[in-house]
What we know:
Layout: E1 6-11, E2 15-23, E3 30-38, H1 46-59, E4 67-70, H2 79-90
Antiparallel strand pairs: 1-2, 2-3, 3-4
Amino acid sequence: xxxxxxxxxxxxxxxxxxxxxxxxxxxxxxxxxxxxxxxxxxxxxxxxxxxxxxxxxxxxxxxxxxxxxxxxxxxxxxxxxxxxxxxxxxxxxxxxxxxxx
Length: 101
């Protein structure tokens, strides 16, 4: 896996998500791939989730909720702000993913 790829995780009661993403050199767009683990059927494993998410990122196909891109970002967004944008685009906003009380 390339060192320019970042990963983050989001969890709900039903699913765990592993997201791989890569920012463009000018930092104004990002491509992402998502792996989904159903908690009632699968054992969450970071290594496997990273492999699947990275494969979807590298495949370059747009798959709603599983792979795609976001453009028109400002180049000064922090890593965490970019991750929140990706989570919002994928439909799993921070609000229902265990924000601190």
